[in-house]
Amino acid sequence: MARPVIPRSLRARLLALWLLLLASAAATGYLLFAFYSQSADVQVGQAEVAVARACREIVDRTAFVTGAMASTRIVDASLRADLADAVSVALARSPGVEGGVWTAAEGSVAYAFPTYEGTGPKTDLPSAERESIAQINADALRTERPAALRRPSRTQALLLQACPLRGPIAGATAWTMARIQTDHGPAYRQLLAGFAFLAATVLGSALFLGRFLYGFSGHIARLKAQLAAPRSERGDLPDLAPTGEPELDRLVDALNAASARLREAQGRAVAAEKLAAVGRLSASVAHEIRNPLSAMRLKAENALASGDPARARGAIETVLQQVARIDGLLADLLGLTQTRPPVRAPADVAALVEASAHLHEDLAREQSVRLAVETDGLPPGARVSIDAGQVARALDNLVLNALQHVPEGGLVRLAAARVGEGGGARLLLTVSDTGPGVPAAIRAEPFEPFATGRPDGTGLGLAIVREIARAHDGEVRLMESTVGATFEIDLPWL
Questions:
Q1: How far apart are CA 54 and CA 40, in angstroms?
Q2: How far apart are CA 367 and CA 400, in angstroms?
Q3: What is the model's pLDDT at position 433?
Q4: Which PANTHER family match (predicted)?
């Protein structure tokens, strides 16, 4: 069983591409942060080694100072100075490390920060870390082994190390401390540069894809609107305007070329259809002409055989009537097969409809039929570019067709209206009646030549209306109605 094909639009694919780019940027950002964290951990680890080594240096240096001393719990000023000098010497080769000597009884008895980068030598114990220093030294005294403390924060890591002192000073420990700035240094700068590049890449791609999608969707929407615009019943494709996008314009050129070929093929098909219609109608035309010719021949033969002048006169009148019938048939047939291209000019549609109704007032009055005109659906002073003569002929055919079918006391209504706006506006001309409607036998194809519901009809009037509508790039329709028949001519409003 074949798997169903799920259509995916270009917009969806580009959105998926942008999401993949975003996911890739997020993964890269995570890796950058992981690398930064690892390098920061390495930096802190190296600093811990330096702090521990400096603490051992203090232990070794102070051992020389206290080596000849007897056991004591009191550290006098002279000893404090010697211890401070020993601490300074011990830390001289440890950049960024400060430290000293601590006793359980007196607290800090010596302090030095020989690599301090301030304006002068730093001799005061950091007050903010005093409790941490006291705690780490107490831990070293309690366990009698070195104790270490790492206190990280968002921007730095505080490292402390305490080492018990073996010697005459009771309860003494050496301690060292360093602050590692994790928001400085090459790793941090590389992290910021990487995040800045990722942000610029993601934002730039989002803006580029957004602009592309917006412009591409706009071009597609305009092409769709042009293709969806109302067209004639022949289905002519409009000439599409270039979009400025090379890929789309290649498609536009192909569609325009296809439209041109379609119009040419339709022109040839229409011509072929007319010729084929003439061929198909030959038998019907022969039948329509044979009947009046047979009647004329019979009348003439009877008049010649009788020798009665009155009968001869009656035969001549019958011949003239049948000649008039044949002449009307041939005129309609020529009008169907030799329609000329419309000569368009601005025409007052309301006046044209009024004139058509006025032309048939006498016939309507004789048949006791009421004619009504409705032009309220037209803009004031509406003028449309049409061949007024051809459109008037189409209206006359529809009105005559209605008058021939509507019973005494009935109604024939002529209406004109504009529907739609802008380039899609249309002119609708409607002729309706209250007669019996179109017979079911010809309702499927009422506009085919010789399709008629009257014994004396030629069946060419509606076919001529269709040809006139097509020549104006429009169409004529038989509308659904509950009473009588309603025909609608639909023309472009130009």
A1: 21
A2: 12
A3: 93
A4: PEROXIDE STRESS-ACTIVATED HISTIDINE KINASE MAK3, SENSOR HISTIDINE KINASE
Q: What are phi and psi of 150, to 5 degrees?
A: -120, 125
Chain centroid to Cα 1, Å, comes to: 34
Residue ranges making up the domain that contains 435: 342-492
The size of the chain, in residues, is 494
Cα separation, 435 vs 367, in Å, equals: 13
Residue 352 corresponds to which amino acid? L
pLDDT for res 4? 45
Residues 170-228: tens digit of each pLDDT: 889 999 999 887 665 565 666 667 777 777 777 777 777 777 777 777 777 777 777 77
**Contact between 161 and 51 (Cβ < 8 Å):** yes
- Cβ atoms of 402 and 362 closer than 8 Å: no
Buried b (16+ CB within 10 A) or exposed e, 281-296: beebbeebeeebeebb
3-state secondary structure 18-48: HHHHHHHHHHHHHHHHHHHHHHHHHHHHHHH
* CB count in 10 Å sphere of residue 254: 11
CATH number of the domain residue 119 falls in: 3.30.450
395 vs 338: which has the higher pLDDT? 395
The CA distances from residue 199 to 18, 24, 205, 473, in Å, are 13, 12, 10, 57
> 10 Å Cβ neighbour count for 388?
20
Question: Cα(224)–Cα(220) distance, rounded to whole angstroms?
Answer: 6
pLDDT in tens, 141-164: 999 999 999 888 777 889 999 999
Share of the chain above pLDDT 70, in %: 78
Whether the pLDDT of residue 95 is over 60: the answer is yes
Tokens at residue 142, please?
């309690």
- With a CB cutoff of 8 Å and minimum separation 6, the contacts of 154 are 183
The contacts of residue 485 (CB under 8 Å, 6+ apart) are 402, 405, 432, 433, 435, 437, 438, 478
**Number of folded domains that form the chain:** 3
- Band (pLDDT 50/70/90 cuts) for residue 337 is low
Q: Which CATH number does the domain housing residue 434 bear?
A: 3.30.565.10
Both 418 and 277 in one domain: the answer is no
Q: Could you tell me if 353 and 319 lie in one domain?
A: no
Tell me which range, 71-80, 86-95, 437-446, is most confidently predicted by mean pLDDT: 86-95
Q: Which two tokens stand for residue 180?
A: 């590692």
Question: Among the residues of 100-156, which ranges form H helices?
Answer: 130-143
Mean pLDDT of 338-350: 83
Which has the closest alpha carbon to 411: 435, 428, 376, 437?
Answer: 435
Are 335 and 394 within 8 A, CB to CB?
Answer: no
